Amino acid sequence: MNKISLTQESENLKEFWQLKNLGNINNHTINLIKLQGEFEWHSHDNEDKLFMVVDGILELHFRDKIVTLHPNECIIVPKGVENKPVGKDEVTLMLFEPNRAL
User: Fold this and answer.
1) How far is CA 52 from the centre of its chain?
2) What does the alpha-carbon distance between residue 88 and residue 38 come to, in Å, rounded to a whole number?
3) Among 1, 7, 53, 68, which residue's CB has the most CB atoms within a 10 Å radius?
4) What string of H, E and C letters represents the secondary structure of the chain?
5) How do the pLDDT tens digits run along the chain, 102 residues long?
6) C-alpha separations of 53 from 1, 32, 34, 74 in Å
């Protein structure tokens, strides 16, 4: 058991759009990711996903609205809901999602 510094882990992320695994809990993975720009429209057919903003501002586009998240805010996107993450500036997110089968 070791503590995790989100500030330090975020500073160590040098590449955009690369997941950094912080650990696993109850068959779920906790990842950190740094992004800038737009991701493609997508959905997850079998899993819900939690987006938590650590640093920056995230716009999460849905087909019918845009939700803006600031640091220490999060949103749970239900499975099957199309979304497009957008970071106009650099954004660091913590993602909670089910472990992926290898």
Assistant:
1) 6
2) 8
3) 53
4) CCCCCHHHHHHHCCCCCCCEEEEEECCEEEEEEEEEEECCCECCCCCCEEEEEEECCEEEECCCCEEEECCCCEEEECCCCCEEEEEEEEEEEEEEEECCCC
5) 889 999 999 999 989 999 999 999 999 999 999 999 999 999 989 889 999 999 999 999 999 999 999 999 999 999 999 999 999 999 999 999 888 765
6) 24, 10, 10, 6
